Amino acid sequence: MTFFNKLARDEAGATAIEYGLIAALIAVAAITAMGALGNQLSTTFNQVKTEMAGPAAT
């Protein structure tokens, strides 16, 4: 029973969970930003490719 009382009063686990949640939030934000950046880069490179090909490609 003493083990469960110590476990209930221990706040180190709560701190670890908070850090884990913060890390997960940062990861989701980074993935979202990188996805949007990837789409924008793809569009930019396709426009450059079209411009470099010139009128012969159309």
From TrEMBL:
Cross-referenced Pfam families: Flp_Fap
Official protein name in the record: Flp family type IVb pilin
Record keywords: Membrane, Transmembrane, Transmembrane helix
Domain of life of the native organism: Bacteria
Species: Aurantiacibacter flavus
Chain segments annotated as transmembrane: 16-37
